[in-house]
């Protein structure tokens, strides 16, 4: 019996995680059993166990995979953007576009499952740090008035979390993509000299 070539195994692993992420984004994950996930991905349950040793670990790993994929997508969407204002707008709009496929059920499940929520929160902190860096650069270049960039980054992180938890949608009726655009417009307008 031969073992699969490493590149095939890696490609198959990526395909399974991509399929799992798409399934979870569409339907959420809390209600799915391992048997249902395996059936939907057209693989065996033992194949899933090669990816993780439990459903909890599988969901966490799929969440990590989703955010790696999202970061790569955001990088592509923001490549070549210059200037702090344009960078912030492009970055926040890219986050909105990347998260657009996430169903309400996925976001609710993500918020309710601590290991997945921690991954989201970690990515939110990284996004806020990136915005902070763009604000600092904009202030240094004279594009923005002098502001407390840490406060602005904290505001961004808070709003990203409220958008994720659907608080913004509930209080304003804005979908996520619109909320990210509004946040970008409000933030960059408030930073203008």
UniProtKB/TrEMBL annotation:
<feature type="DNA-binding region" description="H-T-H motif">
    <location>
        <begin position="33"/>
        <end position="52"/>
    </location>
</feature>
<keyword id="KW-0238">DNA-binding</keyword>
<protein>
    <submittedName>
        <fullName>TetR/AcrR family transcriptional regulator</fullName>
    </submittedName>
</protein>
<dbReference type="Pfam" id="PF00440">
    <property type="entry name" value="TetR_N"/>
</dbReference>
<dbReference type="InterPro" id="IPR009057">
    <property type="entry name" value="Homeodomain-like_sf"/>
</dbReference>
<keyword id="KW-0804">Transcription</keyword>
<keyword id="KW-0805">Transcription regulation</keyword>
<feature type="domain" description="HTH tetR-type">
    <location>
        <begin position="10"/>
        <end position="70"/>
    </location>
</feature>
<dbReference type="InterPro" id="IPR001647">
    <property type="entry name" value="HTH_TetR"/>
</dbReference>
<dbReference type="InterPro" id="IPR036271">
    <property type="entry name" value="Tet_transcr_reg_TetR-rel_C_sf"/>
</dbReference>
<dbReference type="InterPro" id="IPR050109">
    <property type="entry name" value="HTH-type_TetR-like_transc_reg"/>
</dbReference>
């Amino acid at each position: 019996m031969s073992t699969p070539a490493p590149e095939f195994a890696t490609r198959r692993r990526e395909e399974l995680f991509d399929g799992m992420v798409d399934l979870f984004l569409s339907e959420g994950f809390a209600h799915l059993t391992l048997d249902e996930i395996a059936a939907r991905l057209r693989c065996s349950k033992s194949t899933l166990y090669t990816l993780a040793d439990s459903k909890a670990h599988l969901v966490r790993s799929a969440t990590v995979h989703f955010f790696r994929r999202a970061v790569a997508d955001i990088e592509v969407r923001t490549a070549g953007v210059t200037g702090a204002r344009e960078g912030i707008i492009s970055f926040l709009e890219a986050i909105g576009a990347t998260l657009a496929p996430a169903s309400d059920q996925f976001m609710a499940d993500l918020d309710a499952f601590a290991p997945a929520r921690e991954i989201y929160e970690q990515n939110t902190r990284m996004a806020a740090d990136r915005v902070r860096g763009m604000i600092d650069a904009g202030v240094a270049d004279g594009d923005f008035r002098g502001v407390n960039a840490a406060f602005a980054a904290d505001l961004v992180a808070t709003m990203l979390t409220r958008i994720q938890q659907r608080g913004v949608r509930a209080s304003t009726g804005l979908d996520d993509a619109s909320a990210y655009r509004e946040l970008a417009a409000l933030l960059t307008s408030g930073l203008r000299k």
